[in-house]
Amino acid sequence: MSQLPEAEYAALAKSLVPIDFSLGQKLSEPNEPIEYVYFLSTGLISTDAVTKNGDSVEVGVIGREGFSGLAALLDQPQMSHAVMIQGIGNGHRIRSSIVRDEFKKGGVLQQLVHTFSYLQMVQVTQSVLCNRLHEVERRLARWLLTSADRMEAEELNLTQEFLAQMLGVQRSTVTVAASALQRAGFISYSRGRIHILNRPNLMKAACECYNTVSESYRRLLKHGPDESLTYVVSQTDSIRRNA
Fold first, then answer.
1. What are the residues whose beta carbons fall under 8 Å from the beta carbon of 187, sequence distance 6 or more?
2. The Cyclic nucleotide-binding domain covers which part of the protein (predicted)?
3. How far is Cα of residue 34 from the mean position of the Cα atoms in its chain?
């Protein structure tokens, strides 16, 4: 993916604040103002649809290929979904108003945001189909692979509570599905820690939704989620050194 020209990332980098993300940290709440945009260097962001009763289901995940707070750039000060950290890591935050002002100027930043917006739409729409038509075991395989891709790691710290939320099922259902994948030798699962042991076979066990979304990422990001909007974050130190 094209990287931001120096003038564009310099305009953002001077306002970036380093931050460590903790598991379960809320980045934005439903129907609350989106004060900050968050960029990950490591970790995993989860976007969840939430009912009035507090039940939720995950509709998308974000790694360092993207950011949280997209709605704020589109002149929507709040969103109906919850956004939280589901994989600890670090990154930067910046006031959403600053990114919105730069986004409206056009240029490469605007192009990258449009690409990220489309990828989020692909995830969300595919999740609707997946939750309606596919078996839990295949859906679990898909989300484990997706989470690993976004975190760029084959070992994940995912609790049963989060897996149940991710799939919109009961914890007991998650236990059965995870046990089946473990018996097949595709993963190891113990005390909230999941290690992908056999990615090729886990991909075969996953539903078609994994490939559908992954192909969109490969097509639009060219080299995968490692080249992304968070390029602006990686330039922060060099900008400060040259200031």
1. 144, 178, 181, 194, 195, 196, 197, 198, 202
2. 1-74
3. 17
Give the CA-trace dihedral at 88, 208, 114, 56, to 10 degrees. -50
Count of all residues that appear for the chain in the document: 243
pLDDT in tens, 157-169: 888 888 887 788 8
Q: How far is CA 161 from CA 57, 157, 183, in A?
A: 11, 12, 21
Using one digit for the tens of pLDDT, what is the confidence trace for 8-39?
Answer: 888 999 999 999 999 889 999 998 999 999 99
d(CA 197, CA 10): 41
Residue 228 neighbours by CB under 8 Å, 6+ apart: 1, 64, 65, 66, 112, 221
pLDDT (0 to 100) of residue 3? 64
Total-model pTM: 0.86
Spatial separation of the C-alpha atoms in residues 156 and 136, rounded to whole Å:
19
